[in-house]
Specification:
alpha/beta; Rossmann fold; DNA polymerase, domain 1; six-stranded parallel sheet; two-stranded antiparallel sheet; 12% strand; binds 2-phosphoglycolic acid; binds magnesium ion
Length: 235
């Protein structure tokens, strides 16, 4: 395995975003006079994008008898306010996982093309990587609303492969959920799954990724087959 193009899922793979996603959601619910939700439950809803998370939160409240939460259109009506709360919380309580910067540095130094492929809407995904200083590692960020489809549709992977002239053998997806595994399978590319992310309430191992990694440092081995590029100074 010596991929030249490596695509990274964002939430649960590069950055632990669950705390601020539940902070933003609960800030919205409190502002609307609705009951707040246990962060552990919110964490289990991450993976399909922010709007979908809001839909699930409202369904959860409706099932518990909260009036108005189950009204058709409730999620769309609340989405602009949720977006404002989320933007205000983005990058505050989230943390980049250990070794991420060191690995991305090494991969870039060895000439790998790196992209983010997230189901989080582009503006939020961009804000998360920007606020954590990760932006310059990536040549492209595809969010859940960048293209007509999102994961598990293989469109995002195919788009990157076309753009960077990579075939299935020279592409790798690194993700944390069964959605990522399904996306990679649909595109015919290998998938390495991280063990520490968000996969609803089950271990991602059940989705049978090609490899399960226990630490981000495992990705250092992807640099073993390429000589480091000469650094070109701009000064
Ligand atoms: O925001 C989400 O729900 C998921 O985002 P991810 O695809 O980066 O895990
Ligand atoms: Mg994820």
């Amino acid at each position: 395995m010596n991929p030249s193009l490596i695509l990274f899922d964002l939430d649960g793979t590069l950055v632990d975003t669950a705390p601020e996603i539940s902070d933003a959601l609960n800030a919205l619910l409190a502002a609307e006079g609705l009951p707040t939700i246990d962060p552990a439950l919110v964490r289990s809803w991450i993976g399909n994008g922010t709007r979908e998370l809001l839909v699930r939160a409202l369904q959860h409240l409706a099932l518990r008898g909260v009036r108005d939460a189950g009204e058709p259109g409730a999620a769309d009506a609340l989405m602009p306010a949720f977006g404002m709360h989320y933007m205000a919380h983005c990058g505050r309580a989230s943390r980049v996982y250990p070794q991420v910067e060191a690995v991305l540095d090494a991969l870039r130094e060895h000439g790998k093309r790196l992209c983010v492929l997230s189901n989080k809407e582009e503006r939020f995904a961009f804000t998360v990587i920007e606020r954590h200083g990760l932006r310059d590692y990536f040549e492209l960020l595809i969010g859940g609303d960048t293209l007509p489809t999102k994961k598990p549709d293989p469109g995002g992977i195919r788009h990157c492969m076309r753009l960077f002239g990579a075939d299935a053998e020279s592409t790798l997806l690194v993700g944390d959920s069964e959605i990522d595994v399904a996306t990679a399978r649909a595109a015919g590319v290998p998938i390495w799954a991280v063990s520490w992310g968000y996969n609803h309430d089950r271990p991602v191992a059940v989705a049978q990724p090609d490899r399960l990694i226990q630490s981000f440092g495992a990705l250092f081995e992807l640099t073993a087959l390429d000589a480091p590029r000469e650094r070109v100074s701009t000064y």
